[in-house]
Write a structure and sequence with these properties.
The complex is a heterodimer.
Chain A: E1 4-7, E2 10-14, E3 19-25, E4 29-37, E5 43-48, E6 52-56, E7 59-64, E8 69-74, E9 83-91, E10 99-100, E11 104-109
Chain B: E1 4-7, E2 10-13, E3 19-25, E4 31-37, E5 43-51, E6 54-57, E7 64-66, E8 76-78, E9 87-94, E10 102-104, E11 108-112
Parallel strand pairs in B: 2-11
Antiparallel strand pairs in B: 1-3, 3-8, 4-5, 4-9, 5-6, 7-8, 9-10, 9-11
Classes of the chains: A mainly beta, B mainly beta.
């Protein structure tokens, strides 16, 4: 099956700093999503972005499907951004089998 | 709009006991799935369904059964619980169409002693 690798595994930022999280995948995909798991365990869908660029407030994401990677940008980070960020993807033709990476744990400090 | 609802939130079982984790969604989504989350391993797909009466196995299906008799409900059954099934379980659903965003329930923390 598809391999999904995320980097860095851990990240500590001061409030107000910017960051870039990376997701590499091993095969051609037609489904790429980013999720945030807050400290209470809730998983929130941030982006569905199989290709191109999207922005939602301080967050934006870019997927370059031909080069098999996606980036999540967090600008002007806040303590509420803390948690674990997961990317997940599915090989073209297998949209039902979304595979998750192991996540990037982000801690934003004052 | 409740979204995806999971019950119970916490459960402790003894080895060999059976139980059913409930999942319901009110978004009329055809696709539903179950994931388990273990420390350091992300989320792994257990079973999924693309519509009522249709189910299929994911990455880690052993020890779990599912059925899909209605669009709204997708229960996960543990027939004989084992300590290796201690985990956090998430149910998810999504629409089919232009956006395939996956929506998760709040999770069930299961401990098998």
């Amino acid at each position: 099956g598809i391999q999904v690798e995320q980097s860095p595994p851990d990240l500590i930022l001061q409030e107000g700093a910017n960051s870039t999280l990376r997701c590499n995948f091993s095969d051609s995909v037609n489904n790429l999503q980013w999720f945030h798991q807050n400290p209470w365990g809730q998983l929130i869908n941030l982006f569905y972005i199989p290709s191109g660029t999207k922005q939602n407030g301080r967050l934006s994401a870019t997927t370059v499907a031909t080069e098999r990677y996606s980036l999540l940008y967090i600008s002007s980070s806040q303590t509420t951004d803390s948690g674990v960020y997961f990317c997940a993807s599915a090989i073209t033709g297998t949209a039902s089998k979304l595979t998750f990476g192991t996540g990037t744990r982000l801690q934003v400090t004052l | 709009n409740a979204g995806v609802t999971q019950t119970p939130k916490f459960q402790v079982l003894k080895t060999g006991q059976s139980m059913t984790l409930q999942c319901a969604q009110d978004m009329n989504h055809e696709y539903m799935s179950w994931y388990r989350q273990d420390p350091g391993m992300g989320l792994r797909l257990i079973h999924y369904s693309v519509g009522a009466g249709i189910t299929d196995q994911g990455e880690v299906p052993n020890g779990y059964n599912v059925s899909r008799s209605t669009t709204e409900d997708f229960p996960l059954r543990l027939l004989s619980a084992a300590p290796s099934q201690t985990s956090v379980y998430f149910c998810a659903s999504r629409s089919t169409g232009l956006s395939e965003k996956l929506f998760f329930g709040s999770g069930t923390q299961l401990s098998v002693l």
